[in-house]
Structures are given as C-alpha cells and as structure tokens.
Amino acid sequence: MIILSQALIGFGGGAHRCVGVHFAYLEMKVILARLITQFDMELLDGTPCPVRGFATKWPVSPCRVRYRRIDQLG
Fold it and tell me: Residues 14-58: pLDDT tens digits?
C-alpha cells in the first residue's frame, strides 16, 4: 500500500529513507548560497502559494524568477 503523503518525497521515509539525504540537503544549501551571492533575483508572478496537505511544498501557481549576474567589479 502506497501512502500518498510519501509518494512524492524523493528521499523516501521511515526505514527506507535515503542514506545520502543529509549530504543532498547540504549540497542544495551550498548551491543556493552561491546563487544568492552572485545573482540579483526577482519573482515575476508574485508570492507563490504552496499546496496545502502534502509533505512537499510545490507552488500552485507559476514561480518564475528573473535573474541578473551581480557585477563583481563595480
């Protein structure tokens, strides 16, 4: 029996949880930190609203981002 609340979780759950989950989260934090220090970003569609009732937080509406590289010399 598949539980719907865990069907979309990429790292699984319970006894079968991915052993590399903490490393993957650390990688995501490093990449995000690098992006926000090197780019100016702006949401184009306003504040996204997450879906309620699921374990993952996917936006209901589009979540487009405009980005521009920060000039390191000026």
Answer: 777 788 888 988 999 999 999 999 999 999 988 877 777 656 667
Q: Are 1 and 28 in contact (CB under 8 A)?
A: no
- Regarding pTM above 0.70, the answer is no
Which DSSP string corresponds to the chain?
---HHHHT-TT--GGG--TTHHHHHHHHHHHHHHHHHHEEEEESS-S--BPSSSSS--BSS---EEEEE--S--
